[in-house]
Here is the input.
Amino acid sequence: MSKAAKIALGVLALLLIALPWLLGPYQLQIAILTVTYSMLGLAFAFSLRVGLPRLDIAGWWGVGAYATALLMQRADMSFWFAMLVAGIIAVILGWLIFIIALPRGMIVFLLFGMVLAMAFYQLFGSLEFFGGWGGTGIVPQPTIGSFTFANKPELYYLGLFFLAVNLLVYYLLYNSKIGRAWNAIGSSLKLASSVGVNVVRYRMANVLIGNFFIAIAGSYYVAYSLVAVPSAFGFNFSVYILIYAVIGGFLHSLAGPVLGAAIVTYASEYLRVVQEYEPIVTAGTVILIIIFMPMGILGLIDQRVKPWLARRKLYALFSGGGK
Here is the structure.
């Protein structure tokens, strides 16, 4: 990484840390939602590394949220322990389910995920064990010792910590031996199989790791909202998560979903004044991006902005090639 890139990353980190002092309560609430949705978008981009687009993310997000809420309410667990148990539940349940779908290929996995997300939504709302359509009721606030995450600034920093952990783990995985195997599967399934890569096993590892972090995002959502309600985990939200990756850029597995989540979340919130038209505006925007920017915003920067800077001998300065 060049010196200029490190400086830019440092400035961005300082800006994110300073946000609670720069934003009002409403804008900070949107920032908290952006952090949550960024974690979900990262999980979607993570599965694309092995050629598996996921439409079940909202369902597993709900699993993490409901498991955390119920464990804190009925088993009197701390938030931190309940969060880890929720992640493990998502992994075990995912393995039991995906062991059927994964060996049958991407299309079956995709359709299986769609049905699964809808099934989770119905279960959360229909069964009294989960509180019915009214939700779980109020969940205790997370604490560390005597400190309680009760206000939006503290909850924002908690989410920022979880997002940073997500980014770090995904980055390390992408640059590891298993990450190289995932890249091979994503590039050419047949070629990866021909050189001895166990496609089903590596895909299963990818999906289960994703499940764990999706469940953690659900735990964080409960820490902020203090309730798990079925309407928050409907299938339509899985489609929104796909949109984050489309707008940000498929080829940027870390920055793309975060940028896309920020744009869509802020745009959706400010379009609430014309809520009946918001899905139309969002769909129209996605269609235009697919037509004119198929690689997303960051892809457009790669294709147009960087060459433009290079022609003016500016890109070398930012990429470390200049002095």
User: Anything to note?
Assistant: Strands lie at 143-144, 147-148.
